[in-house]
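Agenda item 2: iron/sulfur cluster complex prediction
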Amino acid sequence: MDLDRHDFQLDDLVKRIQENDNRLIALQVPEGLKMQALEMMDQIESETSAKVVLAADPCYGACDLVHDKMKMMGVELVAHMGHSQMNIDSGMPTQFIDVTYDGDPELEPVLPYLQSHREMARSRLNSSANQNMSEEEAQEVFLDAVGRSAPLTDTKLGLVASIQHLHKLPEFQDRLEKAGFEVTVPLGGARLTFPGQVLGCNYSGDDDSIGHYLFLGSGDFHPIGLVLHTGKPLSMLDPYTGDASEMSLQRIERILRQRFGLIVSSQEATRFGILIGEKPGQMRRTLALRMKRLLEKHGKTGYLLALEHVGPDLIDFYPVDAFVNTACPRIAIDDAVRYSKPMITPFELEVALGEKKWETGYQFDEIP
Ligand code: SF4
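Presented output:
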């Protein structure tokens, strides 16, 4: 990662600290920027009269805001870097600090992917779902990454980005339109702050008029979630390297086969650990209680386990047959192989119990 081309926008934070005359603030930075944290602490302390304590625990999103525990340390303000505000209240005054990257990749390498995905979307536009499927056909639909029953009304290109590249979207929209694409920058729900924004747990801007996607960002964390959620083809353009690629549907189908296997192996389970995340933006208490009641309805037992961090060493030893995860959805999706027992999402539990049908296709565990 080329850190020199990142812009850490500390000016608003410095101004707020000066205006409030804060004495102790906490700085929270994402994992990829931790190496720069001490430099930022130096800068804040040299420009204000506040002392800075680094919240050094792992931080993967704005769901994970420093909350009340820092109050006991006397922290007056939390400076949270690199993520945007969510629809949650951490109980602490929090200043969100933007980090933007000024990389400017060429469009040409990604155009062949976009053209082929637009063709896929066009061919899906008029295909209708078969309503009278056998159980076997319904399970095939579940495993088919692009076989969702959600109807398309158009084949627009949905343009999305991870947060440090969102400021480039208007310019990219313009360039893509000049290249002949009909582009929309999706507007998501309350968990998302900006048009075109995606999170690993929220793709709520998707709608039936979008036939395929372009993701501006690096890595496959967001692309995997977006394709699992929408079943739509996705091209990727990496602003750090200029590389273009696509999310392979074989890869998504492998994940779906793994989910299918975990659902089937949970069907015989009788004792479940139901994980509740303690992080402010991951806590889904109502959902966890609903899963407990659902298990009871089917003559099974659910034990509610609350954790700040979830990991194999912290839960594998409990005498249960499987886990249902209501904390960060990506724990079940991305890390399932790390656990010695099946780890499934609430939707997958409903399928395992026969409350939801295979033929509706895979339903991504979204936090609204
Ligand atoms: S994907 Fe997980 S870590 Fe990322 S914002 Fe959502 S809940 Fe938080």
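Discussion summary: The longest strand covers residues 210-216.
Owner for follow-up: CH.
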